[in-house]
Design a protein that fits this description.
Helices cover 53% and strands 13% of the residues. The protein is an alpha/beta fold.
Length: 299
C-alpha cells in the first residue's frame, strides 16, 4: 500500500518516519521542503504539492496545526484522490470539524478515518505513541498495520467523531496535571525540599502522573522543550470547554486551566512551549524550579 503524508512538523515528521522504518512506500509533502529531507534520505518521495501527492498514492495521512489548515489541505487533495481512498487525519480537530470534513470527503468518494495521537513527541519519535482511531471498522482493520507502525497502543474508539472527543479529554487532563504539577513542585521548593528528591518521591507516589514523570523533568531542567505550544494547548482547551457546554458537564478545573493558559500566552506568546505555563508561577514568586540531572529533551 502506498501512503502519502502531509505535514512533517514536530509530530508528523516522526509519524512519517515510523511508516518508512516499517517498510511502507511513502510520498511526503510539507510547505517547508527542508522538513522532508530526512524522509527522502530514508526512501520517501517528496511531492511538490498536496495535489501532486494525492494523485500518486492510495491513501493520505495528514498531521496539521489547525482545523482551518486541515480544511485548506483537504480542498487541494480531494480532487486528486482516487475513489475509495482513505484520508487518515492525525491532527487534533473538534468533533464537528471531523464530521463536517468527513462529509465533504464522502461527497468525492473519499472516506475519512480520524487517528489523533497522544503521549508526546518523544514517543512519536520512538514509534510508541498511542493512536486513537475513529471511523468505520473496516477502515480501521484496513489501516491497522500502518497505525501499528506509528504507535504501540492502538484503540478503535468508535464511529467517526468519537476519537476527537477522547483526544480532547486526554489533552484536557494533561494541561490540568501540568498546572498542578507546577504548583506541587513550587510547594516543595518553597518548603525547603530538594527538588530532585521531591520529583522522585512524587513519581513513586499515588500523586504521580504521566505529565509529572515526563514534562516535570523538562521544567526542572529549565528547557521546557516539549514541542507543543501555548496556542495548541488553548485550541484543545477550547474544544474541551465546548464539549462541556454541549454535554452539560461543568468543567471547573478545565475552565481555570484555560484562563491560566490565556495568561501564559499573553506573557510568553502563543508559540511558547506549553510547559512554560509553570513559568508564570516562577516569575510571580521570583523562584525558579531548577534541579540538576534532568534532561533538556525527552528521548
Amino acid at each position: 500500500m502506498h501512503y502519502g503524508f502531509i505535514g512533517l512538523g514536530n509530530l508528523g515528521g516522526h509519524l512519517a518516519a515510523s511508516l518508512l522504518r516499517a517498510g511502507f512506500k511513502l510520498t511526503v509533502h510539507d510547505i517547508d521542503p527542508k522538513l522532508g529531507e530526512r524522509h527522502v534520505a530514508m526512501g520517501a518521495t517528496f511531492a511538490a504539492s498536496p495535489a501532486e501527492l494525492a494523485a500518486g498514492v492510495d491513501h493520505v495521512f495528514t498531521c496539521l496545526p489547525s482545523p482551518a489548515v486541515s480544511e485548506a489541505v483537504l480542498a487541494q487533495i480531494l480532487p486528486a484522490m482516487r475513489p475509495g481512498a482513505t484520508w487518515i487525519e492525525n491532527s487534533t480537530l473538534g468533533r464537528d470539524d471531523i464530521l463536517r470534513l468527513g462529509a465533504l470527503a464522502a461527497e468525492q468518494g473519499v472516506r475519512l478515518m480520524e487517528a489523533p495521537v497522544t503521549g508526546g513527541v518523544h514517543l512519536a519519535a520512538q514509534g510508541k505513541i498511542t493512536v486513537l482511531a475513529g471511523g468505520a471498522r473496516d477502515l480501521y482493520d484496513l489501516h491497522l498495520p500502518a497505525l501499528q507502525a506509528i504507535g504501540d497502543r492502538i484503540f478503535h474508539i468508535g464511529p467517526l467523531g468519537s476519537a476527537a472527543v477522547i483526544k480532547v479529554i486526554t489533552n484536557m487532563l494533561a494541561f490540568i496535571h501540568l498546572v498542578a504539577d507546577g504548583e506541587a513542585l513550587m510547594l516543595a521548593k518553597r518548603g525547603g525540599l530538594d527538588l530532585a528528591t521531591a520529583w522522585q518521591a512524587i513519581a513513586a507516589s499515588s500523586g504521580s502522573s504521566f505529565v509529572h514523570e515526563t514534562e516535570g523533568q523538562l521544567i526542572l531542567n529549565g528547557s521546557y522543550d516539549i514541542a507543543f505550544s501555548m496556542d495548541l494547548a488553548l485550541k484543545d482547551l477550547g474544544f474541551a470547554m465546548g464539549f462541556g457546554r454541549e454535554f452539560g458537564v461543568p468543567l471547573d478545573l478545565a475552565g481555570m486551566t484555560q484562563q491560566t493558559f490565556v495568561k501564559g500566552r499573553a506573557a510568553y506568546g502563543g508559540k511558547a512551549q506549553s510547559t512554560q505555563i509553570v513559568k508564570l508561577l516562577e516569575d510571580v514568586l521570583h523562584t525558579d524550579l531548577r534541579a540538576p540531572g534532568f534532561p533538556a529533551r525527552l528521548e
